[in-house]
Amino acid sequence: MTATFNQPDPGRFPAGRRAFPHRDLLGISQLERHEILYLLAEAQQWVEFNHQSKKRSKALRGLTVINAFFENSTRTLLSFEIAGKRLGADVVNMHAAQSSVKKGETLIDTAITLNAMRADAIVIRHGSSGAVELIASKVDCPVLNAGDGQHEHPTQALLDALALRSALAERGQASEDFTGLKVTICGDILHSRVARSNILCLTALGATVRLCAPPALMPQGVEAMGAVPYHDFDAALEGTDVAMMLRLQTERMSGQFIPSAREYHRLYGLTQGRLERCAPDALVMHPGPMNRGVEIDSDVADMLDRSIITRQVEMGVAVRMAALDVLTRKTRGVAGWNDGEWQ
Ligand code: CP
Q: Which residues have any ligand 1 atom within 6 Å of their CB?
């Protein structure tokens, strides 16, 4: 690949619109459709870069990226770390369990501390909705939301869109957006930041989104987001092109939301039999971590021709490289952000 990484084609931006005017990536809700497509196009370049044997760019050389994770993570933390390192940045991970948060330090004091270390980008995962936005308001550098409570997980939705787009392209259904595509998201919608970000992203790209959950795990007002709610999983799967399964987020539940994992699997588990209700060759997605035998059977999760779960993980690195690259362009004085002020 060439220097085009830092010099995106200005022709991709709609006339009169600025390329990517945001300082932070806090949620899909802040993005316009063309900005989502822009980030996906940027990420696609990194997918190709990541297929090379040598995967080291100098784009972020000299910059410091802090990954501040106040909640557990495997995929998001590792892929942000790999993304930062492949871009040449100095990457530092802060795990809340080993930090002064455990000694009673407030979130704002932690934010002020990170800011004083003059990070060039801060990636944050936090268990409270809105915590990432609060930190962003206290620091001077770009902040990337790696998942905040039940609110948003924007890079997950972007990587899901990229994985979906690439799987469809391999089947000869290449398209910039998802117009006409039916996607069923099933699971603990109530507690899911992944569901929220995906509803926003998929509907912005033209997909029809069905949501399926037991009544206790379906939030109010999903219709206002453009999604169609279901409680009957078989009905929600009928003719769908994509089944996106979510785990029960017990860490965010207080009280009993389902009778038992076994009963949940009977009503809402994706099995081979249930997959037959979907459109022929429907794709299976899961953001991970999976609870095999609860929301998804192992033989479905591992179906080579249908499941794109590992592809989602692969796309996560590319999307996070794109996000770090785009958001640090102003700091680096590189073209491709905008000529005005950050929003
Ligand atoms: N999908 C996702 O956010 O996974 P992690 O919790 O492992 O980061």
A: 73-76, 147, 156, 287-289
